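HUMAN: Please help interpret these tokens:
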Amino acid sequence: MSSISYQQAGVDPEKAAKILSDFAGFVRTRPRDPALLSGIGPFASCYSIKDLVNRFEDPVLVTCCDGVGTKAMLACQWDTLGGLGADLVAMNVNDLLCVGATPLLFLDYYACGELGAEQLTTLLKSIQLACEDAGCTLAGGETAEMPGLYREREFDLAGFSVGMVDRAQVLGAERVQVGDVIVALGSSGLHSNGYSLVRKLVEKAGVKPDDKAPFSDSTWKSVLLAPTTIYVSALKPWLPRLHALAHLTGGGLFENLPRVLPKGVRASIGAWEFPPLFKWLQETSNLSTAQMLSTFNCGVGMCAICPSDVAPQLVQQMAAQAIPAWISGRIESGAQSTAPAEVIWK
């Protein structure tokens, strides 16, 4: 009876080992975090927090996970993968910021039908560089080749992040007060949400990746696959002065802002003009404004809630770091003190 090898079944461990070995060589050329006690290879990574915990009175570990969703499908279709590392890292570390945490560690999970050296190397390098941008350490990850579950060149990309915050500095609904101001921080584009709809609209409109978008000097692939903004370096110094942060991911403004509001209040938001990309999406999809705000970030990637005297300084400092920002609303008393928080778009 003839034997069937793992390679004949569609899985090539030797190829994976070679790709990861080459990537380890790249990592050795990058700045190293001395707290990371192990590199690529062990079953799990060890990270020393001995020096770190001395900076906190009551240190709290914060964890989260997220992925890039179907944006990966459009990026793969258009052979434009270089921004997905920033998307993956941003979707996680921006969530850590929302509780006031400093990102420490990041791990990735890459699953595919057939391992492609160029594809995986591009993704891993982009993740490493994005971690450096976010000030955290790529501590490890997992590569899974699963023929039959994914079609050729298809893949899924997810990430996991760990951060730390002092218990007294945790951001959230408990700190938000009536009279606080809401500062909108601009997005770089779609970030990593709404792509199941975007892909339908791209097909409907016959969009070609290398054609210029009618509202921009950039190509469609540059506009639709723009990497997600990583807000860590810009917002980290401001965390002690903020009351809450809302990352506008899936569900947009109406779903995400209430997550950081206490009962009995409402967020009164002044309507902003959608950037050209989102105007095109609205015209092409024929969605209402309410539907747009529940599907896409519509030009706002993060909402910061802070005391009124902090807001003007925050806006000024964000602009100095090339992040558009403006005062977009206020926290007001709701109709009933026990009613769920609501968002009012004016």
User: Anything to note?
Assistant: Residues 117-134 form the longest helix (18 residues). The radius of gyration is 22 Å. The mean pLDDT is 94.
